[in-house]
């Protein structure tokens, strides 16, 4: 039945309040994450070029290792939100603890794998002879903090599922501040060099994990939820995470292919590509914050058995995505002449940047729809479809991207291939949401 206009407006206003309350703190927490590497870069940059190059290699490896396991946050958010919607807080927290135990197990496995293979990984990543020792040092020390990093991901998912995005923001701010102080103190005060920066990051990440665990444990005790590891629950979390892992790896493959193609186009093109990719990622934070709100809200509605509420929330969030994408697109298009000189003064880099960023600006509304629907389907626990859709997208994007240098195309053509990738994602996600097959109500999918 169609809602009366007045009722529809009240529903939209309620959804708007929920979206803003969850998305704004989520955006702050998302922005705080890359600041860790920025602080490390600023501190280590004064030690020398070799140290900074080593950090670049090690940070790239660490970011890749951790981002692969982002499903710990996404899958946990959806599962916890469903149980919150069903009114079963003890089960919600129990579900979250299963995710945290899985994070600890995966983190320990990654540490065991990285420590002995660090020199080989650094060499395979293309580090120079002067940068390799510094990269190996940073990677080996920082790897000790990977279990804490994964716990932070899982615990963030728990709190998002509990409709709390403020606590992750506060923890992220605290972690960033501690990391900055520790880096300066250990690198220069204690004279530990690049090792001091790595230890500062490890300590800050462990501190964040401890704070998260304290919050979750307090909630578990309040609601009588067990803290002991449950093999069946951990196994279920892992199974739910596999499709999202496939989705994430497919998306990483898209970005790696794009970077590899840009590198073949020439030095100016790869430099411009990295600037565009950095800005594109920054824009993604704003849209991803709304998607995170979508994961929590949709999961709660479905857990409560409210299919109509889930549909209405989805519709409203898509409107937010389109509007946010359009605003961001206009800002990028108008501000190009102002911020491009901040990144480079080389006309050979500036020229392709001007046109390529216009492509990015034009496709921001499409990106807004993609991020929102991605978050909606994650909140619904529709991981298998997301995995399949992303594999289809990768299969269509790869030949389009590879055709760019084959036909003499440049960076603009490559980013039109990226626009094609986002359009395919939008179509696959829109078809799924329109079908209604993602709507499965109940405390578990």
From TrEMBL:
Keyword Transmembrane: yes
Main location per the UniProt record: membrane
Single Gene Ontology MF annotation: antiporter activity
Transmembrane segments: 19-37, 57-80, 100-121, 141-162, 169-191, 197-217, 244-263, 275-299, 320-340, 352-373, 385-407, 413-431
UniProt-listed InterPro entries: DinF-like, MATE_fam, MdtK-like
Locations listed in the record: Cell membrane
Domain of life: Bacteria
One Gene Ontology CC term in the entry: plasma membrane
Keywords from the UniProt entry: Cell membrane, Membrane, Transmembrane, Transmembrane helix, Transport
Membrane protein topology class: Multi-pass membrane protein
Record-stated family: Belongs to the multi antimicrobial extrusion (MATE) (TC 2.A.66.1) family.
NCBIfam families: matE (TIGR00797)
Protein name, UniProt field: MATE family efflux transporter
Source organism: Streptomyces lydicus
Phylogenetic classification of the source organism: Bacteria, Bacillati, Actinomycetota, Actinomycetes, Kitasatosporales
């Amino acid at each position: 039945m169609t809602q009366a206009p007045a009722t529809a407006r009240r529903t939209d206003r309620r959804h708007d309040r929920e979206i803003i309350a969850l998305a704004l703190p989520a955006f702050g927490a998302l922005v705080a994450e890359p600041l860790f590497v920025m602080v490390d870069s600023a501190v280590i940059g004064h030690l020398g070029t070799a140290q900074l190059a080593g950090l670049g290699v090690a940070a790239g490896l660490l970011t890749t290792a951790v981002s692969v396991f982002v499903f710990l946050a996404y899958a946990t958010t959806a599962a916890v939100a469903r149980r919150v919607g069903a009114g079963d807080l003890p089960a919600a927290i129990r579900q979250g603890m299963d995710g945290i135990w899985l994070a600890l197990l995966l983190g320990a496995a990654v540490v065991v794998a990285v420590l002995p293979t660090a020199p080989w990984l650094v060499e395979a990543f293309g580090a120079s002879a002067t940068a390799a020792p510094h990269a190996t040092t940073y990677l080996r020390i920082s790897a000790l903090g990977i279990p804490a990093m994964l716990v932070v991901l899982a615990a963030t998912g728990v709190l998002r599922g509990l409709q709390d995005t403020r606590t992750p923001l506060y923890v992220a701010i605290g972690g960033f501040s501690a990391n900055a102080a520790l880096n300066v103190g250990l690198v220069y005060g204690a004279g530990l060099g690049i090792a001091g920066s790595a230890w500062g990051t490890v300590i800050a990440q462990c501190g964040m994990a401890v704070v998260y665990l304290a919050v979750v444990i307090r909630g578990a005790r309040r609601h009588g939820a067990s803290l002991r590891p449950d093999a069946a629950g951990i196994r279920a979390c892992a199974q739910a995470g596999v499709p999202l892992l496939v989705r994430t790896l497919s998306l990483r493959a898209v970005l790696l292919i794009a970077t590899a193609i840009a590198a073949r186009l020439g030095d100016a093109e790869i430099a411009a590509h990295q600037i565009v990719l950095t800005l594109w990622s920054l824009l993604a934070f704003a849209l991803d914050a709304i998607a995170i709100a979508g994961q929590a809200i949709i999961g709660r509605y479905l857990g409560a058995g409210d299919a109509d509420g889930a549909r209405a929330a989805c519709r409203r969030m898509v409107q937010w995505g389109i509007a946010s994408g359009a605003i961001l697109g206009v800002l990028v298009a108008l501000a190009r002449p102002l911020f491009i000189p901040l990144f480079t003064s080389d006309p050979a880099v500036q020229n392709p940047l001007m046109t390529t960023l216009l492509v990015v600006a034009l496709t921001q509304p499409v990106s807004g729809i993609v991020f929102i629907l991605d978050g909606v389907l994650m909140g619904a626990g529709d991981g298998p479809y997301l995995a399949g859709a992303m594999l289809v997208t990768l299969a269509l994007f790869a030949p389009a991207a590879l055709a760019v240098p084959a036909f003499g195309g440049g960076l603009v053509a490559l980013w039109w291939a990226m626009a094609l990738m986002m359009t395919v994602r939008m179509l696959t996600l829109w078809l799924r949401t329109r079908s209604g097959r993602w709507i499965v109500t109940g405390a578990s999918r």
